[in-house]
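Something for you to look into today, if you have time. Could you write out one complete protein record for me, on any chain you like? The space below this message is yours for that.
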Amino acid sequence: MMSYAIIGFGKIGQALAHAFARKNIEVAVASRRPAEALAPQAREIGPMVVATSLRDALEADTIILAVPFGEHRAVAKALPKWDGKTIIDAMNAFPVPEEFDGLPSSAFVAKSFNGAKFVKGFNHLVAATLAADPVVEGGHRVVFLSSDDEDAVAPVAALAKQLGFAPVKLGKLNEGGALVHARGRTWGQLFFQDLFKKEQ
C-alpha cells in the first residue's frame, strides 16, 4: 500500500486533504506547527486525515509539498537522502526569486531533494477548486503533471485518478512545467485554465 503525506496545512494543504478524505484515502498532514495544533482541523476534514509530526509524515512513500515556497528548504533538510520517495511539488513561487538562475522553480526545488522522484503537480488549481469535487458536468478536472523522470509520473497520475482528477502529462519540468509555472510577474499559460475532461 502506498502511503501519502501532505506537508503544509494552509489553504492548499487543506484543500488536498479534502480531496483525500472524499475518496477515503488515508493521508498524514504536517506543518511547522505541532501535530496537536493541526488535529482539530484534520479531524473536521475527515477521519482519514491524520495530523502528525513532520518526522512521521516524512515516512510516507509519496509526499506532497504544499508549504509556502521558501520553506521547502527546511523540509528538504529533515532527511539526509530522499531515495525511494516521490515528491509532488504543489507550490508556486510568485514573484519568482532571482536565485533560480533561469531554472523553472520546480527544477530548482528538485535539487534540494537528493534522490527523490520529483513531480510538479496540483499547483495550477486554486484551493477552493482543489477542495471541491473534481467530477464536473460529466467530466473530471484536469491536473497537470511534469517531471524529468518518466517513471515518477505514473504513480502520481494514478493518485490523481484515484482522487477523481484527470491527469495530463506535460513532459519535462523545463518543457511542460513551464506552461504552469509563474515566471517573473506573469503566470504560465495554463495557470488559470480551469479545465475538465469529458468521460469518453
Summary: The two ends are 29 Å apart (CA to CA). The beta strands are 4-7, 27-30, 49-51, 62-65, 86-89, 117-121, 135-136, 139-146, 166-169, 196-198. The chain has one domain: 4-198. The helical segments are 11-22, 35-45, 54-57, 72-76, 105-110, 127-131, 150-162, 176-179.
